[in-house]
Design a protein that fits this description.
The protein is α/β, with parallel strands linked by helices. The protein is built from twelve helices and nine strands.
Length: 252
Amino acid sequence: MSVEQHWSARRYAETAHFVPALGVPVLELLAPSADEHILDLGCGDGVLTEKIVAAGARVVAVDAAPDMVAAARARGIDARVLRGQNLPFEGEFDAVFSNAALHWMRPPEAVLAGVRRALKPGGRFVGEMGGHNNTAAIIVALSAVLGQRGIDAHRLNPWYFPSAAAYREKLGEAGFTVEEIRIIPRPTVLPTSIEPWLDTFAGAFFSTLPERDRVSARAEVADLLRPVLMDETGTWIADYVRLRFRATRHEK
């Protein structure tokens, strides 16, 4: 019963600009070079994609959100509206790159099959996504508030946060050799309070509530999280955990 997340490029730029900024280490792991053909899977508004282009690579960027694709195109990027579960490419790319997007794409098996098809033999798949226990406190708070209203938050959860062992297994089953994979705890300072974060990333959880109840439910989630995620200076620090990996397509 997962609900589709709705994305606004303007709101994303205002409340989540830390996402591409913190994706630079993944870009370094990709190490793009001139004349490579690279697919950016889940490109968002294209901020990080621009850095791949700047390295001299030829880049195709895809995202399921039309507003984000429009923002990427406005940067001069070849961006296309495509779901990660339905990639149409066949042996075209030297590398597939993804930052902070794979955890929105379920089922993962369909995504990995499409990535493998898109890569040339020996091509690399480099990414970072939410890992096991990512935003655990936030999920518990959402579950509590929605549970009081008779709603099972887990049925609305759009996210997939695997452990390193679980994702290594899925990569192997999909035809990849894993060179590096690890969980990285990364408490992340938010540029706003938690409420705009919930609006940007957790809209699916509130989607079944009547409009008049959403503000109060969001406030209750914030009240539960304040003692856990707000420090003594009033700064909100989200309990992020990332899964970073580098794998290579092999022939089955």
